[in-house]
Amino acid sequence: MKEEADEGRRSDNGFRDCSLKFWLAISAVVSGGAFQVGYTFTVVVLTMARVKAHFDTDDLYISAIISGNPIGGLIGALLGGYIADNVGRTRGLMFNSVPFVLGSVLMATCQHPAMLLAGRIVVGFGVGVSSGLTNMFLAEIAPVAIRGFVGMLWGILLTVGSLLALLISSSQVMGSGELGWRLVFAFPVLPALYQTLILIFCPEPPPFLAVNKKDTEQAVNSLLHYRRRLVPEEVRDLEQEMDESPAVLSFMEILCTPRHRLALIIGIGLHSAQQLSAFSVVLSYTPSLFEQLNVSSKELTTFGTGLVNLGTAVIAAITTDRLGRRPLLLIGFLVTAGSHVSLAVAQSCASGEWGCQGEWNVQLAIASVFIFIIGFSASLGPIPMLIVNEITPPETRGRTNSICIGFNWS
Question: Taking the CB of residue 344, how many other CB atoms lie within 10 A of it?
Fold first, then answer.
């Protein structure tokens, strides 16, 4: 109720109150965070066949390389809360560019599959850290009236990264030579450097300075950096947060405080639901799925799913502040569940188990994948990150995010 009242009270504090520095900072963190997550996850979809042929390795090693990203992601996610609370949101994101650069160089210059595996783990660490830090940064510098839109940019840029990975790793762009896949693995260096360059000139978010550092003056200066004008309500909120919020709470203190524990349980549930939706499975194995279903152009179909994903994420970002988080989330649950059922029917019929093979199997499978992408991109993808940051105060936000995202990666 407080959030709804705040939105009504400050409905005029939206896009026009944000400074150019605000949008530059947003572009930097979503490029160095969300874009990297989508890109590094998806880049293996079309490149692993060429890597396997180049090193003449077996499927077990290839599976290990693909799994390197979530292994590093889990480690990064669990450490992300400590980094956010002690190093800072802005400085933490700057330092997090290091694993992206180091991991990308390892993969691009690898002379053995073990180097590629190491690079995937290192990049995965950066992905895990950025999953929490980026979303905290977005939530803490965005005006209330457009916080939903700003938070949903995570989903948009993640989708852009995924789509670009599919595009440049395709045989038409990358080619069949060794240089192609090495350049594809090196690409994340560019957004990492862009993020670092922009964030050098950006202060920490105002809530972090007010609560974690107990420095109201610096918090107001930070707010002025990200706004064209100071909004009195936002200044009063910062002062109130500083007066009412205790020091950063430990994990045990969060668990022992009923309201913080409830927020943690909600966050864990949402992130677990996101992972259990099997989005990673659908995206990673879409090419092989279409191949099993005898679809003639699996690369084109996979790229099509990326375009559907992007279009849905943009529409969701525009509408989330009007429709609300909860309705979008509930609709997403229903759509993804229904698409899983229809996809299972299509695969069972195509395999001949039910004696109902036909051209409609392929059409139903492709439609199911597209519908699943629509449901996930508008809800289960970006909204859990957004909600967790909105229901947690600054003194618990870092560690709560760390635990929730850790469940997501586990």
Answer: 12
Q: How far is CA 72 from CA 8, 38, 322, in A?
A: 41, 15, 36
CA 260 → CA 91, 137, 252, 253, 395, distances in Å?
Answer: 26, 20, 11, 9, 10
φ, ψ for residue 18, nearest 5 deg: -90, 135
Condensed to tens digits (0 to 9), the pLDDT of residues 48-67 reads 888 888 888 888 888 888 88
Q: Which comes out higher in pLDDT, residue 75 or 409?
A: 75
Helix axes 113-141, 97-108, angle to 10 degrees: 150
Angle at the Cα of 107 from the Cα atoms of 105 and 112, rounded to 5 degrees: 125
Beta-bridged to residue 328, according to DSSP, are none
Enter the pTM of the model: 0.85
Token reading at 179: 């240089």
pLDDT tens digits for range 36-50: 998 998 888 778 888
Instruction: Decide if 28 contacts 138 (C-beta within 8 A).
Output: no
Burial label for 91, CB within 10 Å (0-12, 13-18, 19+), is middle
Q: Per DSSP, what are the bridge partners of residue 227?
A: 18
CB 226 within 8 A of CB 18: yes
